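Inputs:
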Amino acid sequence: MIEIRNISKSFSGRSVLNDISFRFETGKTNMIIGESGSGKTTLLKCMVGLNETDAGQILYDGRSFTELDFKEKKDIRKEIGMLFQGGALFDSKTVEENVVFPLSMFTDLSESEKRDRANFCLQRVNLSNANNLFPSEISGGMKKRVAIARAIAVQPKYLFCDEPNSGLDPKTSIVIDNLIKEITEEYNITTVVITHDMNSVIEIGDNIMFIYKGNKHWEGSKHQILKTDNPEVCDFVYATQFMKDLKTKF
Amino acid sequence: MKIFFHFGRYFILIKRAFGKPEKISIYISRIFEEMNLLGIGSLGIVAIISVFMGAVITIQSAFNFESPLIPLYAVGVAVRDSMILEFSPAIVSLILAGKVGSSIASEIGTMRVSEQIDALEIMGINSAGYLIFPKIIASMLFNPILVVFSMFLGILGGYVFGLMAGVVSDYEYVYGITYEFHPYNVVYALIKSIVFAFIIASVPAYHGYYTSGGALEVGRSSTKGVVYSSVLILAFDLILTQLLLV
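Outputs:
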């Protein structure tokens, strides 16, 4: 479980996150949603240590990440897998080499064991016959799947996904969403997904936090979000005419 | 005041780059990869420039040594000393600052803007160590080899083109390049080449590592890396010459 307590962050005096607290449960897909510029990505970067927080605590199964030194933070990071918005695959490495990379850095597995593990992970994300391709030779959806395979290669305890559906068609988005959900439950991972895609929220969201102008504005489940009266959340959830029509219909 | 900020951040980055490696075997293989990319890949340009520069120095020297009081073997002396003392260590390093420096800055800069460096950090890898340390070591190991290679080819180029142009005889040139030869000059050149190699790898790496934005900023980082490393090479050329030769 990851717990954040009273997280605040500002850039050049401009407040981006204000006093945010939340619990991200293990084995669940925890979603952070909000409009563009609301502070979602900043919060995620604070949680993984890419940004320093101004105030507050981040606890990884009780271990206070914010109070650890560089080396201790590195140890926790080895338990983290992350799916970046653009995939962040290493351009100079093939698909297989990308998945093997964390295994080479942190395990003493033999070359064949590493290859077996990489193949297992690639098959898990339904990606075979792409081992020798470079990231520039595969589609956006395939890149996301490789990134997931790389993230799960070292069996992480925590999985962070930054807008996993951005730039993907609706069908591929559902595939990626379901993959995240399945992996979360299968490996009992604490998964945190940042998105502004309501389809994803409805599809896989277990716990949802809505951020509005840097503040936690609402939290609840996917069933609750559809029934909430909170005006900002409603504006976000029912932003499209289709959703508005759907709401009036039901 | 900004200069102090950059100096501070540069030294912090270098300290991180020389931090304890996660896995030594990976770093060693990375050093060999970088030696292949940065060193072997530069052999061609260094060879071409050195041969032609040696030839030009030979012809220019012969043209300027028209006085009967100056023996023609002075052409060989001029080529040897020009190549060993200045051209091979400094000018080759300036050329490498352009070729290798822009490659390092744009590679690391692209990795920064495409979140590949963030991905390394999230995995618990010291990104500065993984990306920059092998480049610095490879450059420091291979630059002296390139410099010796350049010295040899420059002197050889001078010999071949000198004979072809008929400005110097075989005997005079060979006598000139062996006349009052000080092996210390080669040591001086190698010391310079190692210092310049550190600058060529680390300064563009710094600019690439702290790139923010997109493609435009990667280009700017690349330019900055080349410009600052070139200026630093010239500054350290002066400092080292004063310290080691005078």
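Remarks. The interface with chain A takes residues 22-23, 26, 110-111, 114-116, 118-119, 121-126 of chain B (CB under 8 Å). Residues 23-244 of chain B form one domain.
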